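Bench log. Compound arrived from synthesis this morning; before running ITC I wanted a structural hypothesis for how glutathione sits in the protein. Inputs:
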Amino acid sequence: MIGQYDSSFVRRVGIAARIYEFDFEHRPWSVFADKDKIAKYNPLSRVPTLVLDNGDVLVDSNTIIDFLDRKAGAEPALFPTSEPSRYQQMNIASIATGIAEKGVARFYEVAMYERDSTVLKQRFADQVTGVMDYLENACLKLDKQYWFGDEFGHADIAVTCMIAHMKASHPAEFDMKKWPALSALSEGLEAKAVFRDIYQSFIAPT
Ligand SMILES: N[C@@H](CCC(=O)N[C@@H](CS)C(=O)NCC(=O)O)C(=O)O
């Protein structure tokens, strides 16, 4: 698997692969410094990129997670198998990875453009507030410890990886005191061995 664990997308895939006990080699290549190496496998030069033993290449965390889930089989799957729980938890994961995508794009805008756009700045702040308030309310309504029940699943992993990534890359917008339920959920998961192992502190792209 190609990509650094400071990316919430790479990390959510790494955590799922570890939980499913799949053996994989990890190439922590940077999307900027190692762009050309990544492009040999993925024309988007994006991570995560998963190169299979037969040479096929999977791109995008959602595609890779779908592949891992099917390979792992129904029993240990990290999304529920029945509806409406399945689509509800997929939506939570999509909302979390969606704001993480906005976060990556916003980081590039601020770091690499000579002049910031006040429109995009405000839009990003509104999207962060909208998503985090939505997730906080959804988290408060849980009748179990996690979205997946008594154990954590992909929705819990995606939210926790997104929070770590966004707190590090957008500290001004991510004052977690505003979202205490999400804070408690992510802090609890970050203390677990698999989250501590599959981790890299944020390195700003240059
Ligand atoms: N939708 C993708 C997003 C992946 C993504 O944005 N990865 C970032 C690293 S955190 C990246 O590769 N950025 C380089 C670029 O977009 O040019 C996924 O879920 O895997």
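What the model suggests: Residues 7, 9, 31, 45-48, 60-62, 97, 101, 104 surround glutathione (CB under 6 Å). The first strand starts at residue 49 and ends at 51.
ITC booked for Thursday regardless.
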